[in-house]
Structure formats: C-alpha cells, structure tokens
Write a structure and sequence with these properties.
With 490 residues, the protein is an alpha/beta fold. It has 22 helices and seven strands.
C-alpha cells in the first residue's frame, strides 16, 4: 500500500503529523499561547461568543473572534487540553498547504505543486504556527484563499473560485481585521499596474453576491462587539491598525507591550520564518546569478502568473517594512507564495545534483522542533510555564487552603492551568494575612529573585514546596506564626 503512495506525499504527511507531538506534549509557555488559550476557555465557560474576555470583566479588543471561536468549539467538542486548543491552527495550516499545492498545480503542474506544499509545510514559522494557539494561521488562511481564488479566476478556472475570494476576505476580517484588505489589496493593485491590466478584468468576480455575503458574515459581529463593549471600534480599528504601525513608541496596547523593532525588520523576520528554504533560495539565486543565469530568472517575472505570485510574496513584507511594531509571525501570509516561488525556481535552475538534499531539508525543521519539544518535556531545559507549579498546588491544597496566590504578577499560564482560580496578590495584602488569616494554609508563588532568606524572614514558617524557572511555591500557616508572636510577647 505504501509503495503506491508518492514519496513526496509520505514526507508531507510525516511533516504535518509530526506536529502532533509538540501539540500534545509541550505545555503552554508564557505569554502568547496561554493568553489566547485562556480567552478561548473563558468563552466556553461564560457562554459569551460575542466578546472575547481577557479576564473576567476585561474585554479583549486586540483581535476579532474567529480563532477564539474555533478554539472554543474545539474545547466543547473534545474537552480541555493543549492538543485540543492547538488543533484549529493545525487544521487551518493544512488548508493553506492544500491551497498552495492546488494553486501551483493548476498553474505549473505536479512537480512545482508537490515541492510548493513540501517547502511551505517545512518552513520554520509554518511548522510552529501550525501547532500554536495564535491568530496568524487564520489570517494566512483568509489571505491565501482570497489571492489563490483571484489568481485562478483570472486564469479562467471555475467561477466557484470567484465566490471563494470573498470567503477568504471574510475569514481574514474575522481573524485579524481590516489588515486583511491591505494584505490582499496591495499585491492585486500592484499586479494590475505592472501588467497594465484593466481593473475591469476583476469583473469576473461576483462582486454583488460576494460583497453581500461578506457584509452579512462580518458586520454583525463588529456591530455587536461595539454595542456590547463601547470603545472597541476606536481601540481596534484606529489603535491597532493605524497608531501601532505609524507610531514606533505607541503605548496604547492594553494587553501587553508594543513590539518595537527597527524599520525593515520584517525582512529579517522573513529569513527566520522561511528557514531553511529562504536561505537556500537566496543562495541558489546568487549561484545562478554568478553563472550568468540570474537575468533569466528575473525575465521570468514577465509571466503574469509568476508576477502575481511574486507580488503576493512581497505584499506583506513591503507593507510592514516601515512599521515600527512588528513580530516575525507577520511574515506568515507571505510564505505560501514564497514556497511556490522557491519550488518554481528550484525546479528550473541547473541544480539537479543538489536535489538529493531536498528531502532532508524538508525534514530539518520538523526534526529540530521535535527534538526541542522532547528535551523540554524531559526537563533538559526549563520552560516559562506554570503548569507544574499549578499541578503541585492542586496536589497539596485542601478545602482549608487559599487559592494559588502569585506575588505581584499573575502569569497567563497560571491563569489557564488553574482554570482562572489563581489570583494576584500584593506584598501589603500578603502581609495582612498574618494578622487576619482567612485560610488555614496559604500557598504563594514568589518570584525567585526574592531571596530565600527574605522569604523566611517575611514568612517565618514558610515551606518551599517547589521551584520552577521563575517562581518559588511556598506554603505557610498563619496561625502558627501568630502563636509564635504570642510566645514572644509573653
């Protein structure tokens, strides 16, 4: 049976399936994954599918709800676990792999299509985001579906693809917001100008039905979100989509810190995100150029189809070039088309003697990431997660114990793994418990930079229960402390 399956499909399946290892075994590490996982968990717990909640009483205005809907639905279907909450991102990534393969297949045939799918699925950012609780895979699914649908429609394929263009737009608007329109519009507009194609050619798209569909799917949530928590539109549309990118010192992020980066950093992020293939492609093009064949590769861009893919690759990178706040995940919408370009050129360059290295290259990131996961789960290096500490607390606590208290700052992973039960406490509040205790035993996670001697002086009868990367879990009985004080007074 396996002998009948093409090697590329076996490798592709192995790459995608290998991501399950990390999805199942790797705990949520602060900050992104547990933050979004807790928002999805709260959506299920509260039954509120309109407003994502950052924590009870605090709405999360930073992202539209599509990824949270998918994760919450997964929880309802399969229960609560790291694998279950990560599964929607994996499914979205598989959808992008299919679109990448299908687009390349209809344009340039099996060889380019197969290598497009392999290259894309084995890029560093693709592989990581496929098994991570983030919104980026859903944005990339929307932009890829829209651009692929338009590309196929313009090349005379089924009219169904024209309608799918608007499905992609709707997915993007509900996954990331108006940024979707820019990431789709920039390559389309540039392509029309460079190919001197009349905008009327876009009339092949069913604009009336498509726009009606998009409005009916997208606008109700935006209206309900503003009605339910006024201020959402100003923060999300103006703050997240204008101020964040134009103001390098933007400090309006309510849910974290702005990611200040040098302008143009997105190109460095693209090299990281496309590893190892981006470096390979740059190296191959350099070799080809020195052999005098580089101009042939550039002349190939005269093909409107290849130019369309090239501009779809460049669109996100050019848009984020002047941005002062960027993350490497912003390069993800570029990667499906990057993969097609790489596959197209690798199959045409005179590099046949290097082809035996292609499959090992496709396995590089999956193997490295799987080793990283296994080493982390075996304790070879410490993780920024409170999973073990929360589990230790649950094992030790009884009905007379305090909630798990975190001194001064409550990590997102502690919120998630405690199912929202862990609480933040200040030094003053903690000191007050010695005079007026509410529980027989207190459990407090104290930052490790506070010395053991300070803990013992401060909480004289404290016992260290567990140490992790950032915190020391201590327990103490305030009644014992009060008895000690009484003896000293006598």
């Amino acid at each position: 049976m396996l002998a009948r399956i093409s090697p590329w499909l076996l490798v592709l399946s192995a790459i995608l399936a290998s991501r399950f290892i990390g999805m199942a075994l790797f705990p949520f590490a602060d900050t992104t994954e547990p933050r979004y996982a807790e928002i999805a968990r709260l959506m299920v717990e509260t039954g509120d599918w309109i407003t994502p909640w950052f924590e009870p009483g605090v709405p999360f205005w930073g992202k539209p709800p599509l990824s949270f809907w998918a994760q919450a639905a997964s929880i309802q279907l399969f229960g609560l676990s790291e694998f279950v909450i990560r599964l929607p991102s994996w499914i979205a990534t598989v959808g992008i792999v299919y679109l990448t393969w299908h687009f390349a297949l209809l344009l340039w045939g099996k060889t380019v299509a197969r290598w497009s799918a392999l290259v894309f699925s084995s890029m560093a950012l693709t592989y990581i985001s496929a098994g991570a609780v983030m919104t980026d895979a859903f944005l990339a699914l929307g932009t890829t579906l829209a651009l692929v649908s338009l590309g196929l429609t313009l090349n005379g394929k089924s009219t169904a693809w024209g309608f799918l263009f608007f499905v992609g737009v709707a997915i993007g608007l509900l996954a990331k917001g108006p940024l979707t329109l820019v990431l789709i519009g920039v390559p389309i507009g540039t392509w029309l100008v460079m190919t001197r194609t009349a905008p009327a050619k876009l009339g092949r798209l069913p604009w009336l039905w498509g726009c009606t569909f998009t409005a009916l799917v997208v606008l109700p949530w935006y209206v309900l979100a503003e009605w339910k928590t006024p201020g959402f539109i100003d923060y999300f549309i103006v703050g997240e989509h204008v101020r964040r990118f134009l103001d390098p010192g933007w400090a309006g992020d309510l849910y974290g810190t702005a990611h200040l980066q040098p302008k143009g950093m997105i190109w460095v992020f693209w090299i990281w995100a496309s590893f190892p293939w981006g470096l390979i492609a740059i190296s191959c093009l350099a070799v080809s150029w020195f052999r005098g064949k580089g101009k042939d590769s550039m002349r190939a861009l005269r093909d409107p189809r290849l130019l369309f893919v090239f501009l779809a690759t460049m669109g996100p990178l050019l848009f984020f070039t002047p941005a002062g706040n960027t993350l490497w995940t912003y390069a993800l919408p570029s990667l499906p088309f990057t993969a097609i370009l790489i596959a197209y050129w690798l199959t045409r360059l005179d590099l046949a003697r290097f082809s035996k290295f292609y499959y090992p290259l496709a396995g590089a990131v999956p193997v490295l990431m799987t080793v990283f996961v296994l080493l982390g789960t075996q304790g070879v290096y410490t993780l920024k997660t409170e999973k073990q500490l929360v589990l230790e607390y649950e094992k030790l606590a009884d009905h007379d114990s305090s909630p798990l208290l975190y001194l001064n700052d409550l990590p997102f992973s502690a919120r998630y793994y405690s199912r929202g039960a862990a609480q933040e406490i200040t030094s003053e509040e903690l000191s007050a418990t010695k005079a007026n205790p509410h529980y027989a035993t207190y459990f407090v996670a104290i930052p490790k930079q506070i010395s053991q001697e300070s803990v013992v002086t401060w909480l004289r009868e404290a016992n260290t229960e567990l140490l992790n990367r950032r915190y020391r879990l201590v327990s103490f009985n305030p009644n014992i402390h009060r008895q000690e004080l009484s003896k000293n007074d006598q």
